[in-house]
Here is the input.
Amino acid sequence: MRLHLAPLATAMALALPAVALPATARADATAQATDLDEVVVTATRTATTVAHTLAPVEVIDRDSIERSQARSLPDLLAGRAGISLANQGGAGKLTTLFLRGAESDHIVVLVDGIRIGSPTSGLVSLQNLPLALIERVEIVRGPRSSLYGSEAIGGVIQIFTRREAAGWAPRMHVGGGSHGAHDFGVGFDGREGRAWFGADYAFQRTEGFNACDVAEPTPFSGGCFISEPEPDLDGYIQDALSLRAGIDLDDAWQISAQALRSEGENDFDGDYGNRSETVQQVVGGNVRWRPSDAMQFKLTAGRNVDASDQFNDGSYTGYFDTDRDSAALQGDFGIADGQLLTAGIDWLRDRVEGSTVYVSDERDNRAAFAQYQGRFATTAAGTHALQAAVRRDDNEQFGGHTTGSVSWGLEFGGGWQLGAGWGSAFKAPTFNELYYPFFGNPDLRPEESQTVEIGIGWGNDDFDIRLDAFDTKVDDLIAFDAALNLPNNIERARMRGAELGVDATVAGWQLAASASWLDTGNRTFDTDLELPRRARHGARIELDRAFGRLGLGLTAVAEGPRYDDVANTRRLPGFATLDLRAEYALTDALTVQGRVANVFDRDYETVAFYNQPGREWFVTLRYAPTP
Here is the structure.
């Protein structure tokens, strides 16, 4: 497969002057921070240290990504607090993510501040975002519609592409392993005076394995949607390119632009399609003006393209091509010492084109939001913090919707922190739910939620621990209504649970561990049915230590049983996997890494009938001289 550079190069060229059009808040504020590992921007749309963020957040930086030797973004996220993944048969296959029990389309996903996702299905193709192009990932758990609008019921995940702050930084990696897998990547970042620039290319290929495990399927069994077994290899090929550039015109003005394009070829099992060619593209531009230390304005814009051509046994069967254009203007105002007021406007347009004809194929959303953040002088009880936000969305299809949130925190003696919060959120119906021929219902209302949460944490230089509990109720869930033979707002659901996270350094070992407990329920008919594909319990442990030039580590992931269907008739057993890894620095610039995943060759499923890889190995050689 050959990467088509023309669309990406054209988009990048347009993005640089188009910063006057710009998308949701970008991470350029982090460039002003001295310690990127301790700063997040997703939780508040402003740069805030992790210690001062009232929301439960998790940051996965580049060092952690490389040390983990994860092979994909879903692999990196698996088992983390509050997260359940459902994968349909290995690399490149459809992977959906549930956060705190919320639906896959109840989570906002951003790439460099640009909102991504398919307006038709409401899903994000996480499997098509290569780790080689990612610098860091921020996970914010809990409702954030008061800042981001629709879909932010379960939380927000933001992905930042590769970026170096200074110097000349070339890099390269090559690797191979099980299932005929091989990777290659090359990139660089550099700075010349006030300008910076960078590029990364990544290639990944695997022959795969048989994705579907159905011995005697029928057309209506739901088993991979096939009527006859297809015991073949279901491979995946991915080409991806990332470009970025920026300039500090002076101390007050900064301009930047970035673009990412990933193309994939994916084989799978199905009667009506068994191969797809996909495109995931994100282009954005940003201009920032900081007239004083107490005032900053950001103007950002971007476009996400999510497209796919479908084939069945080599014959072309159809396509879809969705565009998501977004723009935002945001101002941050320091109104007093330790107090920040943020206000802004957002614009979003979704457009659908494809072989399926929709009654309506485009809609706009306009919104205004405001947020207050304050930290107050230490009292006898400690240091208090307050965050409050409100947002009004006006959608072309469903009209107006107002959401809000408020959080309070207290830092008291000995490194202890206490926090509590409330937030409302909503999710607008997708194009498929509204307009799909003979299936859509244009009278659908947005799904609405209310969440309360409380958390407590303690930390020092070598140890951090945090426990968070939450209770979310969702009304007007969209589900199939047999009386109408259409989707309708008929369901209610409840998700409640707790998450424990620990980061520690003990006797030279680095420990990162999390555990989750989740209770979900479909409350439509006062039943005790659990929501499908969410594990009730989950845990992840990462343990690493360096012995001079040698590094050793392990990752253990365990998840409890789950149901695969709404009626809770098909139960998937729980599972546990162990990955072992090692790396050795041959020189200061050259490192060899090796990983054995699923050491005990556990057989398990996260979606019924779809296989997961057994024991796998992979070896990587990395070259990255110090700038």
Remarks:
- The domain at 5-623 is CATH 2.40.170.20 (Maltoporin; Chain A).
- The longest strand covers residues 315-336.
- The helical segments are 5-15, 62-68, 73-77, 145-148, 431-435.
- The chain has a mean pLDDT of 89.
